[in-house]
Design a protein that fits this description.
The chain is built from three helices and three strands, in the order H-E-E-H-E-H.
Length: 66
């Protein structure tokens, strides 16, 4: 069997932590800042750890060797 390929889009969007959790950038920061509160903008900086149900799909389908 040939090796499975990692999805290029997943490579660019997600990182795996040492314990196997999936980190991703916070959503909701591309446009429309005027509608958002200052608290929302502050809390959306940086990265976040995905929920287990979402991380399971990312690791299994898109990053098989992650």
């Amino acid at each position: 069997m040939p090796k499975m390929k990692t999805k290029s889009s997943a490579k660019k969007r997600f990182k795996l932590t040492a314990s196997g959790k999936v980190k991703a950038g916070q959503a909701g920061k591309q446009h429309g800042m005027i509608k958002r509160t200052n608290k929302q903008l502050r809390n959306n900086r940086g990265t976040t750890v995905l929920a287990d149900c979402d991380a399971k799909v990312i690791k299994k389908k898109f990053m098989p060797y992650g």
